[in-house]
Amino acid sequence: MKRFACLYMMAFLILVSSGRYALAKNTLLSTDTRNRCVAILVDSAGNGGKTGETAFRAAEILLTNGYTPEIRELITALRRKGDRLTPGECGLLALADRKDPALFQEHMDRLIWMLTSQPDTSTIEVLNVLASLGYDSYSPEIQAIAQNGTPQERILALEVGANSGDSAAGEQLVEHCGDNDASVRTLAIRALIRSNQTELSSYDRLKAISSDKEKQDITILPALFIHAPEENRNDLKASMKSSIGRLKSVFPFATLALAAEGAPDDIPFLEKLLDSDSIETRVEAANALIRIERRDYRGIGVLDWLVIAVYAAAMLGIGVYFSRRQKTSDDYLVGGRAVNPFVSGISLFASYLSTISYLAVAGEVIKHGPLVFLIHIASIVVVYPVTAYFLIPLFMKLPITSAYEIIERPLGKGVRITGSLIFLITRFLWMALLIYLTSKALVVMLNLDNSYILLISIIGGIITVIYSTMGGLRAVVTTDVTQFFILLFGALLTIVIITFKLGGTGAWLPDAWSPSWDKLVFFSLSPYIRLTVVFSALHFLSWWIATAGSDQMAIQRFIATKDVRSARQAFLTAQLGEKILFIILISVGFALFSFYRRQPWLIPDGLDIVSDADYLFPNFIANHLPIGISGLVIAAIFSAAMSSLSSGVNSTAAVFTTDIMPWLTKRDFTDSQRLKLARKSSFFVGVLVVIISAFIGGVPGNITEVTTKTNGLFVCPLFNLFFMALFVPFATPFGTIMGSIYGVAIAVIVAFWDKLTGGPGVTFLWIGPSSLVVSICVSMLLSLLKTRGKSIRYLFGLGLTLLVPALLAIYAVTRL
To answer: Are the CB atoms for 182 and 197 separated by under 8 Å?
Structure first.
């Protein structure tokens, strides 16, 4: 009966929540009102050929709110114009192509060219488009306009500066709200409403300007409302609404402000403005209504929180249970070498399935299409035989605890310690980034403030550290399996609900390749094509083989089984489990794509189906799954990170106990001492990871991208150590280590090509294959040098000399 307990609990939650849940979330706007808003925007956007600022604004609103099909005809017509585009038309194409960074940048570069090199183009028009798109590069050219342009040009240039976070630009905008020139004043007020990047002191200065009888302008109220503290918002909103009856010029500003910060109780007021004589007011009122509806958030209920609490308690219970069954360090670190192959295989896969991975599959399918994961699924036909019949037998015939013991005999202690340190550094950063990103995702799903990220990181880290420290590998693999099946359940339930809502699988199964997805390219040597079939296959082959052949988390799962056959079964289970889940998650991506494309008003405000695809699955879980089930899946998503974190804690503890401590202390430990040291190491690692995660928020740039690139830098260079030790008889320690250093260097160049050169980025698919090829080739070449028996001083000097070409290559790249 115990094996069915989880199913009984799920069924109970469905029944409990069924009376409180409707498959279609109640919407704030009636269908008639929403259709009317869209009709106003479509008519104003000018499918029939209308031009002007209002037409651009209406089309911009439709694109940013997910109503792309409504103006597809207009976008198609603009693409045919080629070089004859106006600034507004170029801005619309930038919005339409924001999925493709290269195309988007091409449109933005054209706008900058219009601004700096096309004398017959209106500077005001270009700057207005840049500012409305949120352009945030306060370049010297734009700064010069902010200082020397006409008054109107200066305001728009300052808005770009405020978008970039330049506090001086924001302060100047505030001062211009009291300008004697009404046109300057109007532009400054609109800029402050559109840009929310100014300092908090803006409110006090705006309040002083609004109180100055000589400069008093009632149109400043919307800007004051936007920058006001929460406790002053309601009074200012009431004053803003009442002022409309006295001065119609407030209409556009008030609706623009309500679009950013309005609430459901503003809907009746805005519905009346749809009848305004001013087309600009009607457009902004329609925008405000659409955006307020998109801010509607159901969130999770009391039952969800109860499920999350019960789940956390169950994880701790597993740790307590297995802690009482450990007698030796082998029990703790490798499960007594008798872990069930099925359990070990699921644990292996679950260890690498982080929360971000689980959510990102659906996001990748929505944004770019399923091609990359279809290739990933097909890679099993090569990955499994190579790993199962070439690598696993080599691992299983050795009585090892740490994977890096394998490379000591052929290459020496130094290479073993090098491999251990590379693994530890990689896993420390990976675990810290993982727990931070998971906490950030949960904050979005729970609709909490970002200040809760640290608290969630600490709570999740403490729970994980406790059960993995207490229970060892058996506790880790048991929780891994539990988490895998809950995640599987959440994905399947999502498909079922969307199928029911849309009227069958035929409503979301694609019957054609979507125009927004990556084009199918079989092979190309161009590094700027994001995805090709050949390099996708090489990427996944190199990643999985390198990971299975060098990562302690993988090798630990193999040696935890009783023999080679069991280890092969474990790896096959991992591969099949991953592929099955990916097929299901691809279906989730298809279903979510159709669900939100047909109902764009359900996409959260500020997000869109193209640029923010990764957030749509979390949004669906929090808002559209039954109450109770949402809590279970959120717990499972959190547990996916806990699974990866616990595996990382246990595997790093094994390396620290077996490799690092004996090397540092120059002594051997008894088995009981190793067990105590392993537990202390697990606790130390877990606490350190939680501490590091608290500072991850300060890492500049897109953290998800940084995480992926960071992992990719070391996977293949680490595998190079094993490849040389196992398959190259003439390998030397010096040549092997230098090859891995070169592999890291080429991975850095590929991963951060855009940052190093200032040009477009190189496809991420090249990171693994290029670093693997360079690592092995350089290692084999330098192993031909006679370095055995040479002094440390000689080898150090030779190493520095041989690093010069790598440093010169990186320098040359930065000068491109």
So the answer is: no
Cα 771 to Cα 711: distance, rounded to the nearest angstrom: 12
Question: Among 307, 297, 229, which Cα is nearest to 263's?
Answer: 297
CA contacts within 13 A on the Cβ side of 336? 12
How many whole angstroms separate alpha carbon 745 and alpha carbon 803? 10
> Would you say residue 202 has pLDDT above 80?
no
Calpha distance 185→151 (Å, rounded): 10
From CA 647, how far away is CA 479, in angstroms rounded? 10
pLDDT in tens, 734-773: 999 999 999 988 888 888 777 777 666 777 788 889 999 9
Residue 783's identity, in one-letter code, is S
Higher pLDDT, 686 or 48: 686
Tokens of 228: 């006001």
**Measuring CA to CA, which residue among 349, 374, 356 is closest to residue 708?**
356
* Nearest residue to 717 via CA among 593, 519, 480, 547: 547
Q: Tokens 């200012």, residue?
A: 236
Give the model confidence (pLDDT) of 279-295 as tens digits: 888 898 999 999 998 88
Nearest of 161, 228, 224 to residue 189 by alpha carbon:
224
Per DSSP, helices labelled H in 164-295 are 167-176, 182-194, 201-211, 221-227, 233-243, 251-261, 267-273, 279-294
More confident residue, 651 or 485: 485
Ordered DSSP codes for 167-197: HHHHHHHHHHTT-SSHHHHHHHHHHHHH---
Query: Is 240 within 8 Å of 254 (Cβ atoms)?
Result: yes
Residues 509-538: tens digit of each pLDDT: 887 777 777 777 887 777 777 778 888 888
**Residue 443 confidence (pLDDT):** 76
116-151: pLDDT as tens digits? 877 767 888 888 888 888 888 888 888 888 888 888
Return d(Cα 431, Cα 641) in angstroms, integer: 9
Q: Would you state the pLDDT for residue 578?
A: 80
> What does each C-alpha distance from 276 to 94, 283, 544 come to in angstroms?
30, 10, 61
Cβ-contact 218, 245 below 8 angstroms: no
Supply the pLDDT for residue 587. Answer: 92
* Token duo for residue 514: 């979507």
Measured CA to CA, the distance from residue 170 to residue 155 in angstroms comes to: 10
Burial group, residue 575, by CB count within 10 angstroms (0-12, 13-18, 19+): buried
377 exposure class (CB count in 10 Å sphere: 0-12, 13-18, 19+): middle
Q: Are 654 and 552 in contact (CB under 8 A)?
A: yes
Name, in order, each residue with C-beta under 8 angstroms of 32's C-beta and a sequence gap of 6 or more: none
Q: For residues 279 and 277, what is the distance between their CA atoms, to the nearest angstrom?
A: 6
pLDDT at position 40 is 92
| Distance of alpha carbon 190 from alpha carbon 257, whole angstroms | 9
CA 432 to chain CA centroid, nearest Å:
15
- Separation between Cα atoms, residue 489 and residue 204, nearest integer Å: 52
Identify whether the C-beta of residue 763 lies closer than 8 Å to the C-beta of residue 529: yes
pLDDT range class, residue 779, cuts 50, 70, 90: very high
Place of tokens 């498909």: 495
- For 151-161, write each residue's pLDDT tens digit: 888 988 888 88
Other beta carbons within 10 angstroms of residue 579's beta carbon come to 17
Query: Cβ distance 497 to 23 under 8 Å?
Result: yes
Residue 84 CA to its chain's centroid (Å) = 37
- In this structure, what DSSP letter does residue 760 have? P
Q: Is 477 exposed, middle or buried (0-12, 13-18, 19+ CB in 10 A)?
A: buried
Write out pLDDT tens, residues 160-189. 888 887 888 888 888 888 888 878 888 888
Residue 87 makes CB contacts below 8 A (sequence gap 6+) with 111, 114, 121, 122, 125, 126, 128, 129
Q: What average pLDDT does the chain have?
A: 77
CA distance 284 to 273: 9
